[in-house]
């Protein structure tokens, strides 16, 4: 786990404070979306398909700070849209740093190299660069040729300037695990702090509905990718969440949707960052009025059936890791384990190699997702 000790200590202190106060539901990281506007149109994205008048809107720095103070989280993720298109993003970041919040500024890096001189390296600031594998696969994913090379240049410059950098990868059906493992080697060689991984979520608004995976496929893919790993690979996330993705039966987690609440130009989004079932004006309303029992795999909600995304399940893993000595020991072991697995190695060697198709936007769903708890 490539996370600074100071950040781990802050999260541990926060989690135990909530437990001692008897709170059953509390957030860990705020998904702060200051705008939906973007300079890409990725086929798997469900965040930028809004009319122009919505895409022009932005949160003010004051609105961002108020949301962070209202929910009291130790960490803030700033997705979008593309945050670097926000004219006051530097002011927002500096204000959060002044409040000692650990920030993950998500970016496709098209503007990163140009904007870096405006930021100051800090232990509180991490650039989370969207990079979905090797060149061909990433460019196919973001529907833009040359996107990979621009992102790599941005990463190199950020590392050179002393910034924390964590490439953030989303994987879909058709992903080649051999290519992903080669990507791990290439990206770690750039000197990044660690990597962040997640399967894709089937946003209703995403143009391409055909490449999202059901739970069984997710487990097979991630077990093949993450077993028999190399010592040089570092992950900026809970090892217990990675075990969940790999299908470890001891990590049969339920979603913690309130663990990563979302705030954007519409208000507090119900129930989570991925689903849009309405908005409320205050964080208190979100926590108290949302019918949480209607979400998650156990609820039978079809929108949740195949979700294994980090924003819902990593909070569960983090709490599991910090709430007990058993969980903490499992987390420690996970940070040093290579996860030897002969069956996964056999699958890796036998995995069919696929090349990406020409860059296209797919307008209609090509198949229905399989729903399984296998």
Mean pLDDT: 90
Look at the helices and sheets and give the structural class. alpha/beta
Rounded Rg = 19 Å
What is the annotated CATH architecture?
Alpha-Beta Horseshoe
Tell me, briefly, the overall form: globular
Q: How many individual helices?
A: 14
User: How much helix, percentage-wise, in residues?
Assistant: 25-40%
Q: How many β-strands, per DSSP? A: 10
Multimeric organization: single chain
- Please report which band the strand proportion falls in: under 5%, 5-15%, 15-25%, 25-35%, 35-45% or over 45%: 5-15%
Distance between the termini: 28 Å
* Uncertain ranges: 206-211, 355-374
Strand order of the largest sheet: 5-4-3-2-1-8-9-10
Task: For the structure shown, list the relevant keywords.
pyruvate-formate lyase- activating enzyme, 374 residues, single chain, 37% helix, alpha/beta, two-stranded parallel ribbon
Brief overview, please?
This protein is of the alpha/beta class and 374 residues long. It has helices at residues 5-20, 52-55, 61-71, 89-98, 112-115, 135-142, 147-160, 177-188, 215-226, 239-245, 283-289, 310-323, 325-336, 342-350; strands at 29-32, 75-78, 102-107, 125-129, 164-165, 168-171, 196-199, 262-264, 267-271, 276-280.
